[in-house]
Design goal:
single chain; 299 residues; alpha/beta; Rossmann fold; 2 domains; 5-stranded parallel β-sheet; 13 helices; elongated; P-loop_NTPase; DNA polymerase III subunit delta
């Protein structure tokens, strides 16, 4: 088996869960009792650390916590220090980096040394939502296993099993926004975006000359939505617009594509920029309206 693999696919399709299950099988030794994979000494997982000491305390208490934006070079160096020793329970060790496309540039360069000269019995599983962000030298030393998006009926079965309390409207919104990712669909269900989905479809179908629907959209989003909700609403609007791309109407196509591009840009900014939530709501509503109405441009 090749020593390094990129597990590639959109976020939320199960790459991380697969990596941990595969790691547990790789380190398993016949006749040797195995601890829980989450605490296995021969499975090293590098992911986003808490952002600061306060967030570390939240993590220790089992509360939601903010994380650092990147996987740091210090994490790579600590992992490499462990690779200088033999595996604890058997002959194999697995390093999981999740997500590998969050590695800093210096972290990538440091990791490259381990991929070029891997210790005997060591395997690397690199979870990548955007494999193109990895250095070409890293990609060239790995084999790629691709995870395809799931069909809508499969995601609907998952939603019914994992979130039976969700309404039909909420599931419909989650399916529209998830685009094949069950993890994303479950996140959207948690945000309860069914009413917002209906309003977005109305704006696209009817326009909003009097700003009435945009006002309702802002009210439904809420006066003080957190970043996660703002990002979810923006992603839902982007998915709804993408599904509405008309055939044959070149002028409408241009408006839809322009609005989609602006929503992609806004979605990339929302996790880090401190925008006024009311203005974000109106911007999203305006972009939806611009895709529906020839006479109205985005603000």
């Amino acid at each position: 088996m090749h020593h390094a693999w990129i597990l590639a696919g959109m976020k939320g399709v199960g790459k991380g869960l697969f990596a941990r299950a595969a790691a547990a099988e790789l380190v398993r030794e016949a006749g040797v009792p195995q601890p829980d994979p989450a605490n296995h000494p021969d499975i090293i997982v590098l992911d986003h650390l808490p952002a600061n000491e306060t967030e570390e305390e939240k993590k220790a208490e089992g509360k939601p916590y903010a994380v650092k934006r990147n996987i740091t070079i210090d994490q790579i160096r600590r992992m490499q220090g462990r690779l200088n020793t033999r595996p604890t329970l058997g002959s194999r060790r697995v390093v999981i980096i999740d997500p590998a496309d969050s590695l800093e540039t210096a972290s990538c360069n440091a990791l490259l040394k381990s991929l070029e000269e891997p210790p005997a019995g060591t395997f690397f599983l690199l979870v990548a939502h955007r494999p193109g962000r990895l250095l070409p030298t890293i990609r060239s030393r790995c084999r790629t296993l691709r995870f395809d998006p799931l069909p809508a009926d499969a995601i609907d079965r998952i939603l019914r099993a994992e979130a039976p309390e969700a309404s039909a409207a909420t599931r419909a919104a989650a399916l529209a926004a998830a685009e094949g990712s069950p993890g994303a669909a479950l996140d959207f269900v948690a945000q309860d975006l069914g009413a917002l989905h209906t309003l977005m479809l109305r704006i696209l179908a009817e326009g909003d000359h009097g700003f009435t629907l945009r006002g309702a959209l802002a009210e439904e989003i809420g006066a003080r939505p957190d970043r996660e909700r703002q990002v979810a609403v923006c992603e839902l609007a982007r998915a709804v617009i993408a599904a509405q791309l008309p055939l044959g109407d070149r002028a409408r196509q241009a408006r839809v594509i322009a609005a989609h591009g602006e929503l992609v840009r806004l979605g990339a900014q929302l996790p880090t920029y401190n925008f006024d939530p009311a203005l974000v709501a109106m911007e999203i509503g305006g972009l939806l309206a611009s895709a529906a109405m020839p006479r109205e441009a985005a603000h």
